[in-house]
Amino acid sequence: MLQNLKTRFGVSHILPVLALAPILGFVLLYLLESQYFIANLATELIGQGKLVEVFLRDDPALWSDPALARRAIDRLHESVSSRIMLLDAEHHLLASSHESDQGRIGEVIALNQFDAMPKDQIAWQIAESSHLHQRIVDVAVPVFDSNNTILGVVRLSQRVSGIIERVLPLRWFVVGALLLAITLATLLALFLARSLSLPLARLTQAVTGIQPYDLSKSVPETGPEEIRTLASSFNQMARRLNDAETEKRHLVASLVHELGTSLGGVKVAVQALQRGAGKDHDLVVELADGIRGQVDHLGLIVNDLSLLNETQQFELILRPQWIDPNDLIYNKCWAYLHLIKQKGITLIIAMDKDLPPFRADETRICQILGNLLHNAWKFTPATGRVTVTVTRQKFDHQPDHIRFQIADTGPGVAVEEQDKIFELFYRSQLVRSGYMGSGIGLALARRLAVAHGGTLTVQSQPEQGATFSLDLPLEARGSAD
């Protein structure tokens, strides 16, 4: 029964009302009876007693003669509805308005509340009458003569059952009000429970309805703040999943395109060799260079995918070693430089003299420069220019850096895209316009640069080419391996 949140929420709101409402009702009725109605009755009886005291205090003989006391009671009984007793100074009963008291004339009537009070004060109490066998409100008013000598006591009594009869309609009113409050509380609890469970039900339905081919669903961000936050988090997650799915599709499409292009080029070269192109030495060299370029391009793609998998599943591990900048550019990156020359692009290499070795993971640095050089080859027209510059950068308050700059004369990068191109799977307008690209090379290149304690930035203006700068810190030759 209590397995779902809606039921639990409703019960948690209804139970306190069901438990507290009767208690509050009983307390309210008790306070009304004891603190208001009974106290009000006592005040009324005290007022009547004072009037009787004023009426009888000028007749001292009455307080020693039961017959006179009886006549006085008969006169007062018509205007006073309460039970009236006249007692002498020793508390002997002289007369009573109640017929059952006629056999008690002359008896001493116990006035416990009067005995405990000063003799000149009015006292009242709620007591159990041994004669009437029920609870009564009892008031005792002392009567004094002109010499301040006590003549007797006027005792007035009223049954509590009379008060209960007056309170009975109020009891039904309170019970009705409590039942109404319980009903309203139940309806409110059900409404709140539904308003809480409905957004969760929508969210659950949306979660169970997620399909790999459709991640665009969202849920309304309604309800309490916590539910809105949960719905917003779900919508953000769905958008990220949808973006990731879109990026994955773009990546697969790009890889299919790039792999197909490279393999197509290799296939054409092989077919040409099979048809007799091998007799022409120059053509064989050209075809071999083309095949090597396509294989190098495929190797770059494989390296990028391998690095992407490594960075997403494991902590990137670097294997630093001392690297000679000249050897890095002219030997390790020779294949990319040759590819640029083969396209007919003017290649300029400018390096500072006496560049010191620097400590880094050679494979990863080659991967960074390979991505940058491959992009320069891809986006620079055959009549363009690619400039590779390697310099030492000196700073006052930090270690020196070695800077690799690769500048091209291609279409450039729009200002608003210069940060985005380093995001994983982001494909610039140029790539979407027809250039090949997977959207992972530059993102991985920057990750590798940061892992080495360096930076990778771009400066560009549309149609004026782009300059990519890789800055890596130099370490002293004596640093420990």
Describe the 3D structure.
This protein has helices at residues 5-56, 66-77, 112-115, 160-208, 225-274, 281-313, 325-332, 334-342, 362-379, 429-432, 441-451, and strands at 83-88, 93-96, 123-129, 134-144, 150-159, 321-323, 346-351, 358-360, 385-393, 401-408, 455-460, 466-473. By secondary structure, it is α+β, with helices and mostly antiparallel strands. It folds into three domains: 5-166, 2-Layer Sandwich (Beta-Lactamase), CATH 3.30.450.20; 212-306; 316-473, Heat Shock Protein 90, CATH 3.30.565.10. The strands form three sheets. A five-stranded antiparallel sheet has the order 2-1-5-4-3. Helix 4 (160-208) packs parallel to helix 5, helix 5 (225-274) runs antiparallel to helix 6 (281-313) and helix 6 (281-313) crosses helix 9. Mean pLDDT is 79; it is low at 476-481.
